[in-house]
Amino acid sequence: MIRHTLHAARRAFSPGLRRYSETSGGELSEDVFERGVPPRLTKQASLYVHWPYCLRRCSYCNFNKYIPKENNDPVMTECLQRETETLLELSQVSRITSVFFGGGTPSLAPPSTIAAVLESVSRRAYLSDKAEVTLEVNPTPVGKSKLEDYCRAGVNRFSIGVQSLQDGDLKILGRDHSSHQALLTVEEARMLCPGRVSVDVMFGRPKQSAESWENELSELLRVCDDHVSLYQLTLERGTQLFKQVLGGEVTMPAEDVTAEMYQCARRSLHQHGFLQYEVSNFARHKAVSHHNTSYWKGRQYIGVGPGAHARFIPFGDGGVVREARTQTLEPDVWIREVQQRGHGTRRRIQLSHLELLEEVLVMGMRMSEGINHKHWELFSPQLGLREVFGTSSNVQELLQSGQLILDDRGLRCSWYGLALLDSILPALLVRLERQISQRLQRDHHAEGQTTTISNPQ
Q: Other CB atoms closer than 10 Å to residue 413's CB: what's the count?
């Protein structure tokens, strides 16, 4: 079953495993590899801005968020601006394609903060007036009251954290809004940004049944705009909900029930004109999230704010290889670092050729369209999709079972296979690693022979 976090992909993405390799570059001559990427992929990036504060912590959440002890909006705004300018200069990108304000609860940030950050972006790079600028919104009366001001500040798309239309479930989840407040917020957002409002809804909640989920979806589809994000509730260690389930206070739906909920949602959304363009995302009238699509297509992104992640080449620092970068988690420490040196980057790790391809594979396979041949060749010009995956017996089994498709368009999951992506990815990742290793061995062998010929005894 698909979950918000793809457990099968953790080998490529988990900080404790492969996401942040401790190597300093690898043996693949990444400089040559990266220089071969078209300039448009290195001269532009999307921008993620993290607002770390919440008024309370939801029972299921283990995201990087903090309850503020005092109002430090001015200093946070100043530091977000400064880090934005520092990292834009470091990346040397000339164009920001989209901006996403996430958190935490970014709708707690003053609209003036949003405007200030966007002004900082425009000072260092080109940001089109038509570029997608998204703000996550907690659908409380306070959040709703600021929507118009956010639009004036430059936001043109809202992502509303509805999560549930059942007040009892919202209480269990620790949310601080009611279903009625959520519906009013969605209505207001749709008036301000028609066609550019997404709603987040969660399934697999405690005591939830497939029948109640189907009824809830029907109600949601009567009021939502043109984009819906579905997430299966995942129990995370250390959260209040995890402890409640462990202690027997709360029960979760069985796996076969959540699987049916996911398929029910896919069918219902399709019947209402929504196309599934990614594992968890559905859109009609082409109202896809351009920002998130840039992640799934393996493009560069810059992360600003406490705990933000990034993938870009630091040309301004003499870099020629894409790096995985993480900002300091704790807001107070991050603020101090930004004030001292202009940014709060805690870790920066060069990605090897294999690690980059793993990310392109894992993220690309989340999309319904998968990975086309031309896109894969941007990152792997010497080993095409058919060369990597076409002769694998394990991959052949997935192709013959109808879960996977490899044709003239590229590599992708079938409609049936997309729901089983967790179980498909390991076979693809193993095959990719094996093919890259074999290619390395052949190259090293060829280099050795060239050296022997060039230097006869």
A: 22
Give which of 44, 9, 33, 21 is closest to 379, Cα–Cα. Answer: 33
Angle value at C-alpha 358, between 356 and 361, nearest 5 degrees: 110
Tokens for 339, please give them. Answer: 């004030």
Global pTM? Answer: 0.88
pLDDT at 28: 30
**Main-chain phi, psi angles of 289, to 5 degrees:** -85, 110
Query: What are all long-range contacts of 373-378, with beta carbons under 8 Å and residues at least 24 apart?
Result: 373/408, 373/409, 373/410, 375/297, 375/298, 375/410, 376/410, 376/411, 378/37, 378/38, 378/41
The pair phi, psi for residue 185, each rounded to 5°, is: -65, -45
Nearest one of 121, 278, 273, 139 to 197, comparing CA atoms:
139
Two structure tokens written together for 9: 């992909």
Between the CA of residue 257 and those of 7, 243, 299, 417, what are the distances in Å?
19, 22, 36, 18
Nearest to 404 by CA among 395, 190, 360: 395
Strands 281-283 and 404-406: unpaired
Dmax of the chain from CA atoms?
84
DSSP letter assigned to residue 107: G
Beta bridge partners of 371: 411
Cα 90 to chain center, whole Å? 22
Q: What is the pLDDT of residue 407?
A: 98
- Measured CA to CA, the distance from residue 98 to residue 148 in angstroms comes to 20
Could you read off the pLDDT of 11-70 as tens digits, one per residue?
333 332 222 222 233 333 333 334 445 566 789 999 999 999 887 555 555 555 555 667
DSSP readout, 351-379?
A: PPHHHHHHHHHHHHTTBTT-EEHHHHHHH
Q: What are phi and psi of 383, to 5 degrees?
A: -130, 105
Q: For residue 424, how far is the Cα from the chain centroid? A: 20
Of 343, 357, 348, residue with least CA distance to 83: 343
